[in-house]
Design a protein that fits this description.
It is a single chain. The chain is an alpha+beta fold. The chain has two domains: about 290 residues, Beta-galactosidase, Chain A, domain 5, CATH 2.70.98.90; about 170 residues, no CATH class. It has a nine-stranded antiparallel sheet, with no helix packed on it. β11 and β12 form a beta hairpin. α9 packs antiparallel against α10. The chain is elongated. The protein starts with a helix and ends with a helix.
Length: about 575
Amino acid sequence: MMDQKNLLIAIVLSVVILIGFQYFFEAIHPPVPVAPHQPAKTATTVKPAENAPAPGVRVPGMVPTAAAVRSRAAALAEEPRVKIETPRLSGSLSLVGGRLDDLSLINYHDTVNPKSPHVVLLEPTGTKDPYFAQFGWIAGNAEAATLKLPGPQTRWSSSGGALTPDHPVTLTWDNGAGLVFSRTISVDKNYMFTWHDSVRNAGNAPVSLIPYGLISRIGIPSASGSAYSFREAFEGLVGAFGGGSLQEVKYSSLKPGKPVNYSAAGGWLGFSDEYWLTALIPPQNLPLKAEFRVVDEDGIDRYQADYSGPPLTIAPGKTATADTRFFGGAKEVNLLDAYADTGIPQFDRAVDFGWLYFLSKPIFQVLEFFNRLLGNFGLAILLFTLITKIVFFPLANKSYRAMSKMRLLQPEMQKLRERYPDDKQKQQQEIMALYKRVGANPLAGCLPMVIQIPVFWALYEVLYVTIEMRHAPFFGWIHDLSAPDPTSFANLFGLIPWSPPHILMIGAWPLIMGVTMYLQQKLNPQPVDPMQAKMFMALPIVFTYMLSAFPAGLVIYWAWNNTLSVAQQWVIMHRAGAA
């Protein structure tokens, strides 16, 4: 009985680790609470200096909510705009406030249907859920506080033409009191904008100004995968400061009047959704003050991530400049890696690979390479599984040989139990002596399942959090490897025109996986104890139901892995005379 109990314990522990450890890990590593107006413990604190951000300076708050909510088209038509046209983005800049508040990702759609609307990232003010980026200047001293500075309602003039990767746009505004503001905006072929702000002082006295940038949004986005995921990808405010680790602040952690503050040399900050990211990236060689905050206005939560740089003193006749970058797009792994390599610390960690980052990311990179070769992520998963089986072939061989010996020993083990029916201790002693005599290891049979648990979970992370897997098709009825199998046995896989409840959504691939698991189980040594035999018989059913809620790509991996294991195990046991 010892061998069966050990195997049962290993399976149960594997399931517990598979589902529960993520929650446990996140529970013991909550976001570090930061007192208002204090730097985060993990950020690099900057000592006060002449070029440090001025103490007590506050970035302007959110743009006031419009009196009435309008449609997106109506809100866009109300203000003069500059079109944005790139290979991957479409939208516009508002000349009122100089805001970036209209951005759609033309390579991504709301659903797997290629005719569905493009994903809309940024929304203008006046709509239901405004989401925008804004840049400007704050008064750096008492004298500058009396000056008229560009604000949310400032109407800028444009140099003309659409903003494209080959055609930057320049906005200008004269305050009529000696300061002329200029803003040149450029964009690359992906999702990175560059803001080059300058101020020319045509007055008779020096002026001190502080550059700032902010991202503002109303409401909390709905998680795309929460309906079927066993953990939630991080969604909230995110950043990295002073070369430190990634800082994540969930929406629920922010309270009105209690902002989270950071002071550091360089860094970036913004909002992270499951697949999308907006981020402010100030110059990395300058100190900054960053803040995450929420304001409750008439029951509506308005979130903001902002930063302010060091004050700039502009002498009469001189010009001061401030540069920053803004990222607004999909969290594509290779693209974020490339941006991180340009000197944006921890930018690649915006993809939430979880606690198995060191394993999940290499698996993704392997799958992406295979996808480029085969043209299908589903085939890439099958090839990855095959190579994994080859890598672990020696270990699996040893394990299956041990199980073959255990299968051959079952008649003798049954005789020992019948010989000592009332002496459990003597039973175990004799069984262990039998194991030692023939060189059998009752724990060896657990290894094939145990060693694949980390790979299984890492692959789950890859399927769940990477934009590359979103809407990635396989063959037949699987149009999205990152979503569960859409079919159900309850309506005969679509033959009956009825949509079963979620509890009955057990598709074809989970059933295939269950069959392969049952076949593999039949090759293992069978429990002598009737109760254990019933428990083992129920395991394929339990796993079939449990995995029906997992991404289809993961179920395909498990079914294919089981099939390869059954073939390998049958050959070994046949040669050993145990089949």
